[in-house]
Amino acid sequence: MAVDDYLASLDRALSKMPDDVVSRTRFIIPEVRVLAEGKTTVLENFTTIVDAINREPDHFFKFLVRELGTAGKIDGNRLIFQGRFAPEQISSQINAYVEEYVICSECGRPDTELVKSERILMLKCDACGAIRPVKKRFIKPGIARPADEIAEGETYMVQITAVGAKGDGIAKKAGNTIFVKGAKKGDVVKVLINKISGNLVFAEVVHEK
After folding, report:
1. How far does the chain reach from its first CA to its final CA, in angstroms?
2. If 85 and its partner were Cys, which of 3, 41, 58, 209 is the partner (CB 3.0–4.6 Å)?
């Protein structure tokens, strides 16, 4: 079959599918619209993102404020965070939420729902039938951190894989997003961890003498 014929057949098939199925097939997380207002940060399209990921606003809200290490409130279609946060910080947490609470780990589709089973929160996939427990993304006070989790005041080797809106290098380690001041994409550097907020980490390059 020629490529043009295949694409035409695919379009016809999609046109016959229910709108809900088509939208889920073309699942896209809306780009965040962030506005600074005084000492707060406003996620202007909070409701739009909630609708796209098909989750309860309160569950999504509690995850974001917890992971960003701040307080906040839902104000109509907006979410207001106490403090100043860069768009990439908020986007990183949204992507983390979707990975854990929306996307099926077996088939990679977003056709899922959160269900309780004997007090355990589970992610159930309506597309392939897979079901798995969701992970707890926080550590209660007094409980030791896992051996592979990073800590403030420690140094680590990381690879810079991207650059944020403010020019900071971005690296990933142990499920965390690390912002490294002055680092460039492609650098492999030793960094000192200055601050940890949820799974957002702020670090600086350690210059060897």
Report:
1. 64
2. 41
